[in-house]
Amino acid sequence: MGRENTINTDVIVVGGGMVGSLTAAALGCCGLDVVLLEKNPPAEFNPLQHDLRVSAVSFATERMFSAVGAWDNVHLMRACPFRRMLVWDDQSEASTLFNSADIGHQHLGHIVENRVLQLALWECLRSLENVRLLCPASIEHLEVDTARAVVTLGNQTKLTTPLVIAADGARSQIRELAGLGVTGESYDQHALVATVTTALSQQDITWQRFTPHGPQAFLPLTGNRASMVWYQSADYIAELKAMSGQCFLKAMQKEFPERLGELNEVIGIGSFPLHWQHAEQYVAPRVALVGDAAHSVHPLAGQGVNMGMLDAAALVECVVGRYSSNADIGSLRSLRPYERWRKGNNAVMIKMLDGIHHAFQPDDSGAGMLKLLRTAALNSVDRIRPLNSLCMKLAMGLAGDLPRLAKGQLPV
Ligand SMILES: Cc1cc2nc3c(=O)[nH]c(=O)nc-3n(C[C@H](O)[C@H](O)[C@H](O)COP(=O)(O)OP(=O)(O)OC[C@H]3O[C@@H](n4cnc5c(N)ncnc54)[C@H](O)[C@@H]3O)c2cc1C
Description:
Number of strands: 21
Bound molecules: flavin-adenine dinucleotide
Number of domains: 2
CATH topology of the largest domain: FAD/NAD(P)-binding domain
Distance between the termini: 28 Å
Helix content: 25-40%
CATH superfamily of the largest domain: FAD/NAD(P)-binding domain
Strand order of the largest sheet: 7-6-15-16-17-14-18-21
Oligomer: single chain
Radius of gyration: 22 Å
């Protein structure tokens, strides 16, 4: 720390969750001085405890972790690879199976606890001398002028930088302080998430069933454990959560498909309200948004954090390019290419996931049009090989204009 408690740095990243930590690690690996601010320290990894929040991590995200040296750390804790994904419509029994072997890959992705992903990145941040992790840190003030941004912390430390990256989640304080607006809507569903142990081991497959009462998903974890997700009304979820462990297991067993087999034990239960949200701009002078600070999506296809990781990778590539030519990395000229790269792609994904959510709602028209369309769509994706492969590649983050980090390379 310098005189008068002032720290000067190349970049400040606000939010040390999964996306902010990857951003800081990648910038640090490319030689920039970074300060990462996180308000809540994560609990240490304990093999006997489980984080209820898990993510389906795409192949592209795995490559980004490898590029910064964090993927081995994930495996030192735990991660469950899955090779197949089955999606079916309960009302028509139309289904689609995705199998990584069909596109020559060993797996489609991994199911990993969010805290494991965050801790794996923090381990790597601690080994980078040019990255400072300040936690717990609270932000009191953000001031932006033509030459720099000044962030004042709750303890009155001042940090000056040409660029502040907001990775502080859906309710981003930095987005608000920078005056960047959002559009969005709440869904009339919440997500019930339960970590359970199962009698059967079916660790290489994730499945998703669409029912008239909302989608249900099964995500395998290591051992005979799984994460079950049910998108349902807030009232019904409150009823389920109020049940005792055994009653809850019975209710889930009755409502979930038989193929799940017997449920032995509930390890944890929680629920999350759902909404979609999109920032009207991703950048302002000296500020850029990544991850949920820029967009939140319906989690039914497990894309939220993977989209955020692609934001991080694209922003790092734009910033590192400008930094190495001694340009002002916080100017709109440096930041707009990032916005152009990611905002349109994310808008398409938000619309697509919103469309899937609505397509699987009960069909009030009585004409059964939605059901016919769903059946046609699921059967086509199942039977038309090139379409099936394209969907897999999109979900794995292997299609489109990929940043170098998503190909497993640092952009230096
Ligand atoms: C039920 C459910 C299931 C999901 N499943 C998947 C899935 O399978 N795959 C997938 O890709 N995505 C999934 N998602 C979405 C995913 O969880 C989010 O997209 C992801 O958490 C966003 O990461 P983030 O780092 O951008 O934000 P966050 O995870 O919200 O992290 C933000 C961080 O910033 C910190 N912070 C906030 N404010 C400040 C501040 N003022 N100062 C300092 N620090 C601050 C917070 O403490 C936190 O650590 C799911 C979401 C839900 C609700």
